[in-house]
Amino acid sequence: xxxxxxxxxxxxxxxxxxxxxxxxxxxxxxxxxxxxxxxxxxxxxxxxxxxxxxxxxxxxxxxxxxxxxxxxxxxxxxxxxxxxxxxxxxxxxxxxxxxxxxxxxxxxxxxxxxxxxxxxxxxxxxxxxxxxxxxxxxxxxxxxxxxxxxxxxxxxxxxxxxxxxxxxxxxxxxxxxxxxxxxxxxxxxxxxxxxxxxxxxxxxxxxxxxxxxxxxxxxxxxxxxxxxxxxxxxxxxxxxxxxxxxxxxxxxxxxxxxxxxxxxxxxxxxxxxxxxxxxxxxxxxxxxxxxxxxxxxxxxxxxxxxxxxxxxxxxxxxxxxxxxxx
Length: 326
What we know:
Quinone Oxidoreductase, Chain A, domain 1, alpha/beta, 10 helices, 27% helix, 16 strands, 2 domains, 29% strand, Rossmann fold, eight-stranded mixed β-sheet
């Protein structure tokens, strides 16, 4: 089968299209558990793949390996006891191996794809929307009527967070860096949009502050984000796409009884199948209500996987970047 491999840790340009044997029905991270074999139609591309291309991600497979954490496609086979059947359209968080024509995926992270979504949208569903729900509700304790501020609001996680927050009854603020990204954030449901290269902190404070800040960017925004929170506000740390890990003096948390919490969805849910199912039930409910519609940005063929990673690495991506595999 065709697949894209990382064989050296020199960045996105090191990705190569190769022919490799198809996987068997075991998952490389859970070899003792039967896997769902999926014929891949679309693969989602995310910031972790950029980090993996340089050996900077916490998951460090032996070289060479096939990256790709999430895909959408058709079930070829499912393990005994699975609720899935051959021919089902599915979206999955496969963790590894997604940049290929066939992938083995954990059964407990594979879900039937709603008829309302196409395969490109399905390739942007699990990682981004489960992260968004986990960050907002499980970690951020979001309540209906509260205000959510989202950094990096035009990216995959950002647009997912805006849609989920709106579906949960929140008011939404978005921080973006340009005109195109402002349009994408508005499409995702932002009530107000602020520019990261302007006076966003003062503008957010003037607009009424936020109860929850979702920050997948990091860098120098954390301190200003804390200044934008209401009393008992929560800043949820999702990632560091800006490249630097911020630090904060904890005395800043005292005055307004603020909380800074981490949202590490991936490692947390691997041992919690019931939580994955519960989150997907909520995402399906938001799909049915029309709130969740993954915004697909660039769509590139499998052989241009390196270009897809470069888009994300250069912070030029909007919505979900997707590889068309078949």
